[in-house]
Amino acid sequence: MFLPISAIITSVVIVLAIWLYSDSVRTFEEQLKNSLKLEVRTISKMFDREQKLKIENVKKSIKLALKIFNESSFYIVNNVLEFIAENQLTGEKTSVYLNPWYLNGYLINDNNSFVDSIQNLIGGTVTIFQKTDSGYVRISTNVLKKDGSRAIGTFLPNDSPVVQTIEKGETYLGRAYVVDDWYITAYEPIICQDSIVGMLYVGQKEKDLEELKVILRDLTIGKTGYPFVLDDNGYMIIHPNREGEFWGDSTIFYQIRDKKEGTFEYMIDGKEKLMSFLYYEDLNIYIAASVVLKEESKELRQDTIRNSIITAIITISFLLIFIYIFTTDKIYRFFTALEQSKRNLSDAQQALRESEERFQELFDSTVDDIFVTNINEEIVEVNKAACNTLGYTKEELLKMKMSDIKSSQFKSSVTKNRKIIFKKGSYQFESEHLTKDGRIITVEFVSRLITYNNEKQILSVVRNITRRRMEERQVLSAVIQAEERERQRFAKDMHDGLGPLLSTIKLYVNELKSMTSSQKEREEMVNYSNELIDEAVVATRNISNNLMPSVINEYGLVKALESFCDKVNKVNKINIKFETENLEERLDQNLELIFFRVISELINNTIKHAKAKNIFILLVKNEDKLDLYFKDDGIGFNVEEILTTKNLGMGLKNIISRVKSINGKYSFNSIPKEGFTIKIEVSI
């Protein structure tokens, strides 16, 4: 036991040491990334400072140049010279007419002495512009074109922001596109006789980074890092040894192009490097810095590995000694308990398998059809009963949807019913199934939302109610026929019994109207009429008693049944034993009448058909239930045959309908030659 535990502890400590090593290296690299970001931002601040210095220099330079120009003798000659000028933006050439300008007696046009002298004082570039209809033309400048020639004759068009500012008599200060490049510039209007006739310009190239190049070339980051600068076209502007190279098609440039800032790793010359960059919008350049990852973290890795090994050895030794001395007995008990737990787990797994087998057996053996369907209406599980009912194999049903087994009348209601189930969680409804051989079966669904295979699915228990519907129709028919017989009997009693009496009474009454009859005859007619009226009253009472026994109204169900049973027992053809429990109080009148009719019907059926000698009746009240037990020792009958045959069993069906009318439950049993038993239970 000690050896496996030792191996586990050693493995854990080694894994922990490796994790600590990895975490230290990861933390160092994260710090290195932050340091690179800070270095790049620091360099961008240097560029900001350089831009501000250029703006300040331009401000001072324009003031000095304007002062020298204004202190010089300046005048314009009226004769006009035709001149070909070139738009510096479009390259379009046009004819303009210029007046000769003179400064200190020297012609300024195409004479660069003044601008060069100013350049020697302030540095940068200097230009004198003369106003024309097309714009402001350079007549003297030390701004150079790409071919190295001075940009004499180029002009700024009138829609230039610079020209629009000068036309207002204001100074323009800021970035401006000069011939072929961007400059930090200052422009001042030249005024003669209260009119703006031209403008004076000084400026420095925006990307004149010579001073910064010297600083950045000498700057190192960590042991292996250095800064570098690329323009937005991919040319290396500043780099210790790759300056001037084109990197626009390199994978590095693809990763930084069109991004404001970022940090990433890349491979170059077989070395893995970490790079941080920032896009400097004022100059349209990328300021970046990179280091060689492994070189920077080499010492840290070595120190971390060495310290981790030492710590791991000490920790493992201490733990093993501690375990060996203090916990050997506990470990033994632990493994003993673990072995027992494994045995218990194995027993539990075996019990679970047996439980699953029992459940599957129960699932397949239940008489009701069971379906499990997913959200797409597809059948995902079904039991054997459903297969037997529909005539399909399980494999066939698992490839079908619920709508595939519906009759045409109920196909459209599938989606509607399923929406209700998903909304309410459960739903009970009726439908029709279409079997494989084309038969239509009336079914009752009890559906519930369940979680099956980690999905919301619907479990439906489906019961074939075709036979129940047929029985209900037969029971209804029996009720209708019983009511019709009752009406016929009532009509017969009224016609044959009460009708003749009333007709005779009417004859006597009419005869009394006759004045020819003697007093004696009239008295006899009155006596006969009274006797007939008494007979009519008795007949009426008998008819009423048949409809609603008076003994029930006066004394209740128990007394009415006792009276009825006594009358039957006096005939000596059958013996009825009637018992009650907890029925000291009266029940609801309607309930008493229905139970009286049910028991009377049961007794009459037994007398007519059963050839029984004894009947036992027990009526029991238990809290909120009323239970009836009825048993005879007659010849019995085939219940299935009686209930399914159209013209048989009307009495039994009539009893069932009465029980259902008060939401009662019933169960009966009868076997030929073994008598008949029925139990009825009603909530009160």
Structure description:
The protein folds into five domains: 134 residues, Beta-Lactamase; 89 residues, Beta-Lactamase (2-Layer Sandwich), CATH 3.30.450.20; 37 residues; 99 residues, PAS domain (Beta-Lactamase, 2-Layer Sandwich); 134 residues, 2-Layer Sandwich (Heat Shock Protein 90). 48% of the residues lie in helices and 27% in strands. The chain has 18 helices and 26 strands. Helix 1 runs antiparallel to helix 7, helix 12 packs antiparallel against helix 13 and helix 12 crosses helix 18. It is elongated. 21% of the residues are buried.
Keywords for this entry:
about 675 residues; eight-stranded mixed beta sheet; single chain; Beta-Lactamase; five-stranded antiparallel beta sheet; alpha+beta; about 25% strand
List the helices and strands and how they pair.
Blueprint: H1 2-71, E1 74-76, E2 81-87, E3 93-98, E4 101-103, E5 106-107, H2 113-122, E6 125-131, E7 135-141, E8 154-157, H3 161-167, E9 172-178, E10 181-192, E11 195-205, H4 210-217, E12 226-231, E13 236-238, H5 251-256, E14 261-268, E15 271-280, E16 285-292, H6 293-296, H7 298-326, H8 328-365, E17 369-373, E18 379-382, H9 384-390, H10 394-397, H11 413-424, E19 426-434, E20 440-452, E21 455-464, H12 466-512, H13 519-547, H14 550-555, H15 557-570, E22 575-581, H16 589-610, E23 614-622, E24 625-632, H17 639-644, H18 650-661, E25 665-670, E26 676-683
Parallel strand pairs: 2-8, 22-23
Antiparallel strand pairs: 1-4, 2-3, 4-5, 6-7, 6-11, 7-8, 9-10, 10-11, 12-13, 12-16, 14-15, 15-16, 17-18, 17-21, 19-20, 20-21, 23-24, 24-26, 25-26
Helix pairs in contact: 1-7, 12-13, 12-18, 15-16, 16-18
